[in-house]
Prior knowledge:
The chain has one domain. Helix 1 (6-25) runs antiparallel to helix 2 (31-56). The chain is an alpha+beta fold. It has helices at residues 6-25, 31-56; strands spanning 73-84, 90-100, 106-107. 41% of the residues lie in helices and 22% in strands. It has a 3-stranded antiparallel β-sheet, with helices on one face. The chain is built from 2 helices and 3 strands, in the order ααβββ.
Amino acid sequence: MNKKTSSDLDKYEKMESQIRQWRDAHPKATLTEIEEAVEKELAELREAVVESLVQEEDTEWETLLCPHCQSKMVKNGKKKRRLKTKEGKTITLERQQMRCLTCGMTLFPPGQ
């Protein structure tokens, strides 16, 4: 899980830049105000990284077997799913739905 993509690093650099701009605009900010500004930016970064990591998991389910009849499942189009983060923010994931051609069962990859 320590694998960092250039996209994740870009997100971090953007966050750091925004915090520094905020700090330049608020030179007399208290420690609490600085912490609140950093927390706000970290929450947005965390949301973007979580969404990115979950989207990457999609390829792991290419060879999924049906939990009902054990037949190989096939792609059944992408579906959008809205989830709430622990901070209460909503993220939208577009995930591959899988379908069993034998019994007709459909599902999103487990755990998502």
